[in-house]
Amino acid sequence: MTNIVLPVDFGDKTDQLVDGAVKFAKQLNGRICLIHVAPIDIGFAIGDMGYQYFPEVEGNEIRGELVQLNKINQRIIAQDVDCEHILRQGIAKDIILEYADTKNAEYIVMGSHGRSGIYDVFVGSLTKGLTKDSNIPVLVLPIHD
């Protein structure tokens, strides 16, 4: 079975990305390896006292993201595509490439919003980094408004 890594960020176009990945997986009789990478600084805030860490904020955020990930996982399975999921914290590009390696994935599926400017500096840089450093094909699906 073909393993397809699908990173998700829970943005407003996640459903379109998932739909495209499911269609691709069905064509290949593939299995989706769903991953969400949470930032490592999720519980930190800056204030008058400098940086402060709030573990309860981080815990709540991670639990909420895991609920969202579980919902996407169930949605994929409901469409008759095998799926597993994982939530990790760290630097997204590194974590995704490591996960693809451990899953012996044959593809990574990403979304492209077709935007430019400052948006691409932050969002497009992940796709660019993955396509540059990946040893496996990165399929970029067009996601439109």
Describe the structure.
This protein has helices at 14-28, 55-78, 92-102, 118-133; strands spanning 2-7, 30-38, 44-47, 50-53, 83-89, 107-112, 138-142. It is of the alpha/beta class and 145 residues long. It has one domain (2-38, 73-142): Rossmann fold (3-Layer(aba) Sandwich), CATH 3.40.50.620. A hairpin with a 2-residue loop joins strand 3 (44-47) and strand 4. Helix 3 packs parallel to helix 4. It starts with a strand and ends with a strand.
What labels describe this entry?
UspA, alpha/beta, 145 residues, Universal stress protein
CATH topology, by name, is Rossmann fold
- Strand order, largest beta sheet: 5-2-1-6-7
The radius of gyration over CA amounts to: 16 Å
Indicate how many domains the architecture comprises.
1
The CATH H-level superfamily is HUPs
Counting DSSP E segments of at least 2 residues, the number of strands comes to 7
Order of helices and strands: EHEEEHEHEHE
Shape: globular
The top level CATH class name: Alpha Beta
State the distance separating the first and last CA atoms: 33 Å
| Main sheet record | 5 strands, parallel
**For the residues shown, what is the average pLDDT?**
86
Short description:
Helices cover 46% and strands 28% of the residues. It has helices at residues 14-28, 55-78, 92-102, 118-133, and strands spanning 2-7, 30-38, 44-47, 50-53, 83-89, 107-112, 138-142.
Topology:
Blueprint lengths: L1 E6 L6 H15 L1 E9 L5 E4 L2 E4 L1 H24 L4 E7 L2 H11 L4 E6 L5 H16 L4 E5 L3
Parallel strand pairs: 1-2, 1-6, 2-5, 6-7
Antiparallel strand pairs: 3-4
Helix pairs in contact: 3-4
